[in-house]
Amino acid sequence: MNRPDTTFEKIAWPIGFGLAVLVLWEIVVRGFGVSPAILPAPTAIAAAIRENPGTLWEDWVQTVLKGAVNGLWMGTLAALVVALIIDRFDFLKRGLLPVANFFAALPIVGLAPIMVMWFGFDWHSKAAVVAVMVFFPMLVNILGGLAAVDPMQRDLMRTYAASHAQTLQKLRGPAALPFLFNGLKIATSLALIGAIVAEYFGSPIRGMGFRITTEMGRLATDMVWAEIVVSAVTGTALYGLVAGIEKRVTFWHPSQRG
Amino acid sequence: MKKPVIDAQGVDLTFQTNDGPVHALKDVNLEINKGDFVSFIGPSGCGKTTFLRCIAGLETPTGGKLTVNGISPEEARKARAYGYVFQAAGLYPWRTIAGNIKLPLEIMGYPKSEHDEHVRKVLELVDLSGFEKKFPWQLSGGMQQRASIARALAFDAEILLMDEPFGALDEIVRDHLNEQLLQLWARTEKTIGFVTHSIPEAVYLSTKIVVMSPRPGRITDVIESPLPKERPLEIRDTPEFIEIAHRVREGLRAGHDA
């Protein structure tokens, strides 16, 4: 009864459940004659994906590669630089951090129309929204990580007469990595949301958010759902990628030793 | 000429806390000569760790005169005059045992070509040869603490300061490590400052036992041990040993009643 699941079972259970949901969905849509405008059947969504690979690919490149990924690295890099500066100067820790926390609480997606005004309709304004969305959670996590070293470890570095840079490089940097990856996992899903939603406020005639709004206007919900499927797969893959890198880089952390 | 390695004259230290000033050390006078093994013993709050931290330049006395090798503890710290062993091993989990021992060498700029030789030498001293490639979390608590002693020895400082290094270990492991520490001391001829709250440990290890008492932290007795340098564990059953232990206990009690 209490033996742990085998690898096969670990994979088979969720796949079985997922398939059961899809079958039920198909049965309900066909059985009750649900209008495709309200909810298309899974087979209809699959057909839409099969018939429009070119469009879906173009939208994916525009939204994920250009918007989300660019915004993600820009926001993360900016957070890293600002975190190192705040960490170096105590008065910034006291003055800037509360301000950062205030901004972190704002619904950043609301900035999207302003970013379109500033950076134009193309992916640059989307990347800007993503960068701002990603910036604050990354900043807070990195600062938390840099502060996570216990006093004894700092004293040890002092007994070596280590410089600030050496302490950062040898001790506090590595110790902050698990926090950085926690932030990155939050940031990847935020980046995808930001890049899609930002397109609702104006975009060129491609992109996942653009497609969702225009196809919805034409009541072509199978295509809307096709984009949602693509974004779900993308989000899972990005998360998996970050988790995979995390496992290799922070193998020493109790949460990864397994 | 024989000048003391560590010379304390009327050392005073008052911490300013939110609950008002705390008198941690009062009029501490002590001379430690080259090659001495000095134990500091007393109840918690007696300032034994604080005094060791003063010697290490991690705390600064608010009064009196304290020199290490004839210079201030701060200068001695910057000159890397001592190795420090903390209560916990505090090894970096992302570095192997060899990597941990190389840490001070990297910070102090030892040539890379010499690193392996230093690691080999100190691991042999603490009887951990062959564990170079293990990670700290793969070793027992006693082995971790031995690795942390190896780390403190890696850069050949003449003074070794140890703050209750075996406090968290069980009695059997502790006996074994005490025996090893004496051998190590005999081979390296270092000057050792050792904080403990175990009477047998202090008497077994030391050439000089400093008995301290709290509120304010001060020295109540300094005992020069008549025990020979060669000390098998059985020496703890001899009348001489028991007599010194008795005197330490008397000193602790006197401080407690005052």
Task: Explain what the structure shows.
The complex is a heterodimer of chains A (258) and B (258). By secondary structure, chain A is mostly helical. Chain A has one domain: MetI-like fold (Orthogonal Bundle), CATH 1.10.3720.10. Helix content of chain A is 79%, strand content 0%. Chain A contains eleven helices and no strands. In chain A, helix 2 packs across helix 10 and helix 3 (53-88) packs parallel to helix 6. The radius of gyration of chain A is 23 Å and the shape is flat. With 258 residues, chain B is an alpha/beta fold. Chain B folds into two domains: 1-81 and 159-170 and 178-258, P-loop containing nucleotide triphosphate hydrolases (Rossmann fold); 89-156, no CATH class. Chain B is built from eight helices and nine strands. Chain B has helices spanning 48-55, 73-78, 97-107, 112-125, 141-153, 171-188, 199-205, 239-257; strands spanning 6-17, 20-32, 37-41, 63-68, 82-85, 159-163, 191-196, 208-213, 218-224. The chains are: A mainly alpha (258), B alpha/beta (258). The interface between A and B is medium-sized, with 19 and 24 residues. Chain B: This is NitT/TauT family transport system ATP-binding protein. Chain B: Pfam families: ABC_tran. Chain B: GO terms for molecular function: ATP binding; ATP hydrolysis activity. Chain B: Residues 8-235 form the ABC transporter domain. Chain B: InterPro entries: AAA+_ATPase, ABC_transporter-like_ATP-bd, ABC_transporter-like_CS, ABC_transporter_ATP-bind, P-loop_NTPase.
